[in-house]
Amino acid sequence: MIRNDLLHAFDGEGLRTSEILLFETQEADKLTVLVIYLRTVGEMMFARLSCALITGFCLASALQAMARNIETATVVFETGAWRAWPVIYQLSVNNVTIGFVNDALSSADAVPPTNGASYSAVVPRLQVPRNDILEVTVNWTELSTGRHYTVDFEVDESAYSWFGDEGVPLYVTFGQHGAYAVRTLSKTRVTEPIERAIELDDMVIVSKGCALRTATTAWSEAKLKTQLQQVFGHNAAFVEKYQNDPLPEPRCSNPGR
Fold first, then answer.
1. Looking at the predicted structure, is the pLDDT value of residue 145 above 80?
2. CA torsion, points 247, 253, 254, 256, in degrees to nearest 10?
3. Contact 81, 87 (CB under 8 A)
4. Burial of 162 (0-12, 13-18, 19+ CB in 10 A)
5. What would the pLDDT profile of 69-102 be if each residue is shown by its tens digit?
6. What is the pTM of this model?
7. What mean pLDDT do residues 236-249 have?
8. How far apart are CA 103 and CA 117, in angstroms?
9. 3-state secondary structure the chain
10. Is 192 exposed, middle or buried (0-12, 13-18, 19+ CB in 10 A)?
């Protein structure tokens, strides 16, 4: 009887909590506390759920609006390095990291240079008037020396309009002592009938030079071996096998240890 009266009184309109607490039995007191607690929690849960639903709806609407307004660009990368001078590297475009840290172990002398690692990604464009510009950052570590390098360069897509919306393919070659070259296919190679394999003359330079060595201390031989084993699953012998392979004349000066 007390339980029914309490529930009935609790559901009544205009009923104050003090009126419920007039019941003096222990059972009523326990039940009163329980009902008030459940009601309080229920109201809080309902309020929080409503807030969450409204917030979620507003956020989804905002994201959809942003998605409709944000323009994107397609970026394509392939990389190569000399077998006697391999690197591990990380790429980012318009402040978006592309893929994971990867290694370039060979194929610097191939045309186009690629050791099988190819990236294709979509990134947000910069704001007008720089919406045709791709801001590229490349960070890498030479496995032969443990030195770290970084370079920033820009790609003006309007200068390579023959690729259309497919994105400008960038072929990155890593050399000795921070040397790098970034190439892409020429207009002639892309727009005219293909009659032969790609040659170096079919490619144009996007960026080339000697990268800035970072202040980070060069990795020791032990650190390099650990990175190779733990990150890439390579035994150090995999790299050491080719360390005496021929190399071209260095374009950049040796910065020392």
1. yes
2. -170
3. yes
4. middle
5. 688 999 999 999 999 999 999 999 999 998 788 8
6. 0.69
7. 83
8. 8
9. CHHHHHHHHHHCCCCCHHHHCCCCCHHHHHHHHHHHHHHHHHHHHHHHHHHHHHHHHHHHHHHHHHHHHCCEEEEEEEEEEECCECEEEEEEECCEEEEEEEEECCECCCCCCCCCCEEEEEEECCCCCCCCEEEEEEEEEECCCCCEEEEEEEEEHHHHHHHHHHCEEEEEEECHHHEEEEEEECHHHHHCCCCCCCCHHHEEEEEEEECEECCCCCCCHHHHHHHHHHHHCCCHHHHHCCCCCCCCCCCCCCCCC
10. exposed
Tokens representing 75 are 């970026």
CA distance 137 to 96: 10
Cβ-Cβ contacts under 8 Å for 162 (sequence gap 6 or more): 187, 190, 191
pLDDT in tens, 183-232: 999 999 999 888 888 888 899 999 999 999 987 788 888 888 787 777 67
Q: Which residue matches tokens 């008037």?
A: 129
Predicted local distance difference test score (pLDDT) of residue 185: 93
